[in-house]
Each structure stands twice: as C-alpha cells, then as structure tokens.
Design goal:
By secondary structure, this protein is of the alpha+beta class. It contains 3 helices and 4 strands; from the N terminus they run E-H-E-E-H-E-H. A hairpin with a 2-residue loop joins strand 2 and strand 3.
Length: 109
C-alpha cells in the first residue's frame, strides 16, 4: 500500500472536526491533524476571495482516497471542497506501519 497525506480545507472548526472524526471513525484514515487559522486566497466565480479556513491533514493509504473523497463531500458545505493527496516519499517505518494497520481493510468478496 502507498501511504498518502490528504489535504482538506473547511470553512469552520465544527465542520473540520466533524469531517476529521468521520474519517477516523470509519477507519479510512489513521489520523487527522486540524490546523486552525489558515488564510486562503483563491479565485472563485471570477473574483479573488479571501477566507479563514481550517486545514485537515489526514494520513491514509492510496486505495482509500475515493472513500475519503466520498465522505468529505457528504459532510462538506462547499460546492467544490479541496481534497488533494500527496504521496509520502519517506517516513518513520513504525509510523507508516501504524497508518497501514489502522486503516480498515476492504473485505474480499
């Protein structure tokens, strides 16, 4: 399995916490860090927008990305939420093993 970091921004602390808890409770990510006070500046509907957001940093495996996206979209208030994955190139082997061990393995049918 390939470990990844998934970045998600949320518009409120409550929304960020709800998404993070759902991802961890469903065992599709091992851990989520919620970072408050992110200043985001972006283009939306033809104008420059500045927003204060919360950044979620989730650790999971590549094959769970689609489930992460589905869960985030079901709980998110944004029309187009940010959900992007970055590969983990290196990491403490014991930590990466823990990430893999915590993730719920899909059943084979």
């Amino acid at each position: 399995m390939d470990e990844i970091v998934v970045l998600v921004t949320a518009g409120s602390e409550t929304e960020a916490t709800n998404i993070a808890k759902a991802l961890v409770e469903q065992q599709i990510v091992a851990c989520v860090n919620v970072l408050p006070g992110v200043q985001s500046i972006f283009q939306w509907e033809g104008r420059v927008v500045e927003e204060r957001e919360w950044l979620l940093v989730a650790k999971t495996v590549n094959k769970m990305f689609d489930r992460v996206v589905t869960t985030v979209k079901s709980l998110h208030s944004y029309q187009v939420p940010e959900v992007i994955a970055l590969p983990i190139q290196q990491g403490l082997p014991e930590y990466l093993s823990w990430v893999r061990d915590v993730i719920k393995q899909p059943s084979s049918t």
